[in-house]
Design a protein that fits this description.
By secondary structure, the chain is mostly beta strands. Helix content is about 0%, strand content about 45%.
Length: about 150
């Protein structure tokens, strides 16, 4: 991914990444207090945590930016679902969790643990805004999932 953050804190995209959303979550809303955070994740690559932004401009995505959509503070995570769009190959497992904007882990498997079951954050209320990241185990040669997290804002 050819992205960088300039001295003003703005995310810049170059080459093939110009105009591309990448692994950024988006939110769908309804007339109720229920919201969905939807994230399409490409698992292909070495074992890693999949972030959206290269925060220190070293060529490796290592956190999130103000352009990413977090789950807001005080939101209660209701459910999670991972829909397979492309069959995974290689790799062992992946987990969905919450992170701070700078990439610091809050709970790496808090939403979905490796076995595909709910993590401990499902059914709980977040105390602060959190970004959603995916941690892979093993090297994947293929695999795309759509992760859907339903949450309610009180």
């Amino acid at each position: 991914m050819a992205t960088t953050i300039n001295s003003d804190g703005l995310l810049l995209r170059f080459g093939r990444d110009q105009g591309v959303r990448g692994a950024k979550a988006g939110v769908t809303t309804s007339t109720t207090k229920m919201n969905e955070l939807v994230l399409t994740v490409d698992l292909e690559g070495a074992a890693r945590t999949i972030y959206s932004t290269d925060r220190n401009n070293d060529g490796t995505a290592d956190g999130f930016s103000g352009l990413d959509t977090p789950i807001p503070a005080n939101a209660r995570i209701i459910s999670q679902n991972a829909i397979q769009l492309e069959a995974p190959a290689g790799g062992t497992s992946f987990e969905v969790g919450t992170y701070l904007e700078d990439g610091t882990v809050d709970d790496a498997d808090g939403i979905r643990i490796a076995a595909g079951t709910n993590g401990v954050q499902v059914g709980t209320q977040l105390t602060a805004k959190r970004f959603v990241g995916v941690k892979t185990t093993g090297a994947y040669t293929a695999g795309i999932y759509k992760v859907i997290i339903q949450y309610m804002i009180p």
